[in-house]
């Protein structure tokens, strides 16, 4: 009973809400507090809180995983992931329509295209279960290689090549895809307008 009382007390102490008087104040919170970002090469980004996509629970989970694996287990998985990353890089280089962005020394591999719409490729990959992140300047997408990808590198490269060939043969947005959003946002010169669009998306879709 005492344990339950302590849990309820913690919920009361740690749980809180912020209520805004009107939508204009919410808009200012996003823009003035830098939660809506339009110029980052990592793509368009908007977050309702300063924690963004890095809440404390992920830090705790990462620490628990490292303790569970130990140094040898961590190094073993690292070698496997790095090898998978190199195989993906080589596979991307073999697709004529694509180019590698920068020099990926670790496990994040970004690639784009000067021939086809890379965001259309990304939408097709999403329909196949691969969820990569769209980037900008230059327009590109990236995969963050993890242990889950290690057994499926060949499947990914096949799906990537198939997606590229599909876009070559049938260019155009995929129904329900995000290519039109990223394509249009990149062409809007007024970045303040893009920021407001991000905030509107956050308020209405999340």
From TrEMBL:
<keyword id="KW-0663">Pyridoxal phosphate</keyword>
<keyword id="KW-0732">Signal</keyword>
<dbReference type="InterPro" id="IPR015422">
    <property type="entry name" value="PyrdxlP-dep_Trfase_small"/>
</dbReference>
<dbReference type="InterPro" id="IPR015424">
    <property type="entry name" value="PyrdxlP-dep_Trfase"/>
</dbReference>
<dbReference type="GO" id="GO:0008117">
    <property type="term" value="F:sphinganine-1-phosphate aldolase activity"/>
</dbReference>
<dbReference type="InterPro" id="IPR050477">
    <property type="entry name" value="GrpII_AminoAcid_Decarb"/>
</dbReference>
<feature type="signal peptide">
    <location>
        <begin position="1"/>
        <end position="23"/>
    </location>
</feature>
<dbReference type="GO" id="GO:0016020">
    <property type="term" value="C:membrane"/>
</dbReference>
<dbReference type="GO" id="GO:0030149">
    <property type="term" value="P:sphingolipid catabolic process"/>
</dbReference>
<keyword id="KW-0456">Lyase</keyword>
<protein>
    <recommendedName>
        <fullName>Sphingosine-1-phosphate lyase</fullName>
    </recommendedName>
</protein>
<dbReference type="GO" id="GO:0005783">
    <property type="term" value="C:endoplasmic reticulum"/>
</dbReference>
